[in-house]
Mesothelin-like (Antrostomus carolinensis), 99 residues
Amino acid sequence: EQLSSLGVLVCDMEPETITASDSSILENLKLCPALTGTQQDALNAVLLRGDTTYGDPSSWDLQTLQNLGPLVLALNQTTLSLVAEAARDAFGRSIAAAY
């Protein structure tokens, strides 16, 4: 409940706070125009736990990647390597088709 009232204030959170927060913090992080490298690391740590609404990265499909919205730009190689190649390829094609 407190996270929803924070809005974009989460953009200034320390990485340790991000990883210690409820996974619903991801929805607030979508509002951030940019994340620092350490915030991106924290974001990936939260996603790698697999207890988010997105589930484990190994179960992600095209729709999941699209639902991540701008957070997809912060995914690191470790997280992306768990996503099925077919989902990554489909996501790439969907971006190319949009432009």
The chain has one domain: 9-97. The mean pLDDT is 92.
